[in-house]
Design brief:
The chain is built from seven helices and no strands. By secondary structure, it is an all-alpha fold. The mean pLDDT is 89.
């Protein structure tokens, strides 16, 4: 089977569509695993980070928080290494969200604060949502 630099991305997008249309987690996980394998094989580091992030979201939505956190941390490490600042902010936001859900407010703040700073620096419209999340966590802590 021949793979090009877009193969992993196409499979990742298909997995997202499959999940949103059918809520078939098992199928989506298999597709994300295939995407991860392809991105690793062709050396697409950014694609690998994106796939790990998406798998993290999938596991978080399934309620498998420990697995989600592990995947987000792997994605975060890669994003920091390659300088994907926006991706780093989005992963920190998810980690902050999961920490908040677990009642770990100090940890949530430690993720949300840098996410907010990055997104504000980038003038991202997501900064407003992260700010609201951070405000909520601070109020609850």
């Amino acid at each position: 089977m021949n793979f090009d630099s877009n193969s992993g991305e196409r499979i990742r997008i298909y997995a997202e569509r499959s999940l949103s249309q059918n809520s078939e987690y098992r199928s989506a996980i298999a597709l994300y695993n295939q995407s991860l394998e392809i991105t690793q094989r062709i050396g697409n580091v950014q694609g690998k980070a994106a796939t790990l992030h998406q798998r993290g979201i999938l596991y978080a939505n399934k309620g498998e928080v420990d697995e989600a956190i592990a995947l987000f941390n792997q994605s975060l490490s890669i994003k920091e290494h390659i300088g994907d600042v926006q991706g780093k902010a989005m992963t920190l936001w998810w980690l902050g969200h999961l920490a908040e859900q677990q009642g770990e407010y100090t940890k949530a703040i430690s993720y949300l604060q840098p996410a907010l700073e990055i997104l504000q620096r980038l003038k991202s419209p997501d900064a407003e949502s992260v700010s609201a999340s951070l405000d909520r966590v601070i109020r609850n802590s």
